[in-house]
Design a protein that fits this description.
heterodimer, A: mainly alpha, de novo design (two linked rop proteins), 2 domains, 14 helices, B: D-Maltodextrin-Binding Protein, domain 2, three-stranded parallel beta sheet, 14 strands, globular
């Protein structure tokens, strides 16, 4: 762009020798002075808009990153802790129910549950600040302090059982009591906290980009005003540098808007088809496990089991509702299929449970125990395993959908930060070049 | 060179600040304290349980004189026994936590003991076979409610006969005479209930033992639990200093922990009776007849030898049996 110097604009205004203004003050009143200030101002605005927009987009990207690497996996870990602990207790109590030396596979199931719970707990602890973990009564403090106490009690019960001492049963009951009154509530609390965190991350990743749009519009407005000013002062209609800067500002604004709206759409999807359904399924699974341990504990307690059976009734109704909700919210036919299978296994299990109760209440305790723990087509154990494993499959598929949506959202913001910074640099450079073009004409 | 030094210095300062903050947090929060778990339902009683306001009654152990003992297939029509026989089973409330009397054998999950053998004798007298016996496990505090609601036909569960309970249920003649004593750790060198002032002493909720602990002159602190083995758990976890109840139950607990011993003299007599719902006089007389027969034909001694001899030594003299009419 060659600057045609055909019509020289008005010469610099003659200095007014008053002597009261400083040299800078005088310079500022001249057109070149004004233009220089304008250039500096435009560079500052460009940098400011670029940096603030980049920070806004980066916050979003961080929230998305949290969803894939922190809050998302942590809510899964919390779920895992709950499931493993609950299953460990149900297994330990039903092993006890059988009497005699425990079957090797049941013992292995218990040990695996504990190993799984400890590994998930380590993940959850590692993701937190030390203060979170050591704070009194925080769920992580309770879990890490009491899990080893629980396993200690179970081992004491086992050692006593092996020696034929009835006090083993008392240790087993104490262990179960610890699990139900402290460990499981802490695990549930942890799960709730992580679910809230997921929701918060979704909020901060998927909101409308008000700040970014505002900043983009400010940048554009400043550039337009600058061009009108330059045109008035210099009588030039177009200024290529400033036009390029305006173009960069416009592209930056559109990029940010399109990218973040895309993210918002993905995050909405991850919420609607992912986290909400994951939560429903996870709640259903928790209810399944609670129902199972209520069932076995009623028999273990024999005389004093009425409270467990009452709890079973409540949990059973909730589970039926949750399975209905999960079916309605199923993200696809495959998930719906798993939920349906879980539902029919649950109906069968409830029927078996009725038989168990009538056997026990009718005094046929050994038959009740058989129906409850003996593996086989018609037992409650097989039904429980089926409900649990179908729910777990549905959960895995739904979890996958959540992860997919979030990682798509992550892809949408990839490069946006760099782009915004580059475009801001172009904006600044364009402004400087454009105004330099006019300034040159005063030489 | 200079600038690089400056940079390194700044970095160092920043690192110091960051690491300093980090260790502060970790140290201030690292005072973890262990909280030993409690058995479900365990409770330290700050106010004593309803005082044993011994309602006046003339010798509560005096039961109804035994009636005739008909053969199982010749039970008088319309009698309580005939109704039970028609129902097809005798539901007996028992314990599963007292070694010797009623306990769950971990080896096969079955409930065994002196009380269970007694229940088998009553069942055989009604049905001609012990197979119609149905056990229902009860905690101490569930015994009377279970009888009143008809959940069980009879309770045979180390149950002490006393005036207060006689208001709600009927008792058979005394089938075992126990004495309340104290179980403590050998190391603690506790002489008896007199030495337990201000110390925590465990018993089950609703038992006469708990009331006796609360009213002891030395003023121990009563701790209540649901089952006797819960007391042993608390003693082993150092949460109580002693357990006080019937010597029969204590012997069963001591057998499970060689570091404990039964100490002190008898605090109170504990005559055991089988409890039946009020208003079934025929059943009480029938049960007393079965007991009478067991005492005289040597069955009682045989059951004692099988279930309790190992735990309690040679059979004590049979308790004197008295009837009110």
């Amino acid at each position: 762009m060659s600057a045609p110097a055909i019509t020289r604009p008005a010469a610099p205004e003659p200095p007014r020798p008053r002597g009261r203004f400083t040299e800078v003050g005088e310079l500022a009143r001249t057109t070149p002075g004004v233009l220089t200030i304008l250039a500096v101002g435009l560079v500052l605005v460009s940098v400011l808009v670029g940096v603030l927009t980049a920070i806004g987009v980066q916050t979003r990207a961080t929230a998305l990153d949290d969803l894939t690497t922190s809050s998302g996996p942590l809510s899964v870990a919390a779920q895992d802790i709950y499931r493993s602990l609950s299953d460990a207790d149900a297994t330990a109590t039903s092993v006890f129910l059988a009497g005699g030396e425990e079957p090797a596979d049941q013992r292995a199931r218990y040990e695996n549950d504990i190993a799984q719970a400890e590994s998930a707990l380590a993940i959850a602890v590692a993701a937190r600040e030390p203060a979170d973990v050591t704070a009194q009564d925080s769920p992580l403090a309770t879990l890490s302090a009491k899990l080893s106490v629980y396993t200690g009690l179970v081992e004491t019960a086992r050692a006593d059982n092996h020696q034929g001492l009835p006090v083993g049963a008392a240790y087993q009951r104490e262990a179960s009591n610890l699990m139900r009154t402290e460990l499981l509530p802490a695990a549930e609390q942890l799960y709730q906290a992580e679910t809230v965190q997921v929701s918060d991350d979704q909020d901060s990743a998927g909101g409308f980009p008000w700040l970014e749009v505002f900043l983009g519009l400010v940048g554009l407005a400043v550039l337009v005003v600058a061009q009108i000013f330059v045109r008035r002062r210099t009588n030039r209609v177009f200024n290529v540098g400033l036009l390029v800067a305006t173009g960069a500002a416009l592209v930056s604004l559109l990029w940010v808007v399109i990218a973040t709206l895309g993210v918002a759409a993905n995050v909405d999807q991850s919420r609607e088809f992912g986290s909400q359904d994951v939560d429903q399924l996870a709640q259903a699974r928790i209810a399944t496990l609670t129902a199972r341990s209520d069932e076995t504990l009623t028999l273990v307690a024999r005389g004093s089991g009425a409270a467990y059976e009452e709890d079973y009734g409540k949990v059973a109704d909730r589970l039926t509702d949750l399975l209905g909700d999960a079916r309605e919210g199923a993200i696809n036919d495959e998930v719906r299929g798993h939920v349906d299978t879980a539902r029919s296994a649950w109906d069968e299990w409830r029927a078996v449970h009725k038989d168990i109760r009538s056997a026990d209440d009718g005094g046929d305790y050994p038959h009740a125990v058989d129906l409850t723990i003996v593996d086989g087509e018609n037992g409650a154990a097989a039904r429980f395993d089926q409900v649990d494993s179908e729910l777990q499959k549905a959960l895995a598929l739904t979890q996958q959908r959540f992860t997919d949506e979030v990682s798509q959202a992550s892809n949408a913001v990839t490069g946006t930060v760099l782009g915004v910074i580059l475009l801001a640099a172009i904006m600044a450079a364009g402004s400087v070049v454009g105004i330099w073009q006019r300034l040159k004409e005063y030489r | 060179m200079n600038r690089r030094n400056l940079l390194a210095g700044l970095l160092g300062v920043a690192l110091l600040i960051v690491s300093g903050c980090g260790s502060d947090v970790a140290v201030s929060g690292s005072r973890a304290k262990a909280e030993p778990p409690l058995p479900a339902g365990a409770e330290v009683l700050t106010s004593p349980p309803e005082a044993p306001e011994a309602p006046s009654c003339v010798d509560p152990t005096k039961s109804l004189r035994p009636g005739p003992l008909p053969a199982p297939n010749a039970l008088p029509a319309g009698s309580t026994m005939a109704d039970i026989r028609a129902k097809g089973k005798l539901v007996v409330g028992v314990d599963q936590n007292t070694l010797g009397f009623g306990y769950r054998d971990p080896a096969d999950g079955a409930i065994k003991g002196f009380d269970i053998e007694m229940a088998k004798q009553i069942t055989t007298a009604i049905f001609g076979t012990p197979k119609a016996l149905q056990l229902r496990v009860l905690t101490s505090s569930q015994r009377i409610p279970a009888l009143k609601s008809g959940q069980v036909d009879i309770v045979i569960r180390t149950m002490t006969i006393n005036c207060e309970r006689l208001k709600d249920v009927d008792f058979s003649s005394v089938y075992y005479l126990a004495h309340q004593r104290v179980l403590a750790k050998k190391k603690a060198k506790i002489a008896g209930i007199e030495a337990l002032g201000g110390k925590r002493v465990c018993a089950t909720e609703g038992s006469t033992s708990l009331a006796n602990i609360a009213s002891a002159e030395s003023k121990p602190v009563p701790v209540q639990v649901s089952d006797w083995t819960d007391c042993l758990v608390m003693l082993q976890q150092n949460q109580v200093d002693a357990i006080s109840t019937d010597d029969t139950i204590l012997a069963g607990l001591a057998a499970q922990d060689p570091f404990t011993e039964v100490v002190g003299g008898s605090i109170d007599d504990e005559p055991y009776g089988m409890a039946m719902p009020d208003g079934h006089e025929d059943f009480v007389r029938f049960v007393n007849a079965v007991l009478e027969k067991m005492r005289t034909d040597g069955t009682w001694t045989k059951i004692y030898d099988d279930s309790l001899r190992e735990l309690l030594g040679a059979a004590p003299a049979l308790p004197p049996v008295l009837y009110r009419d």
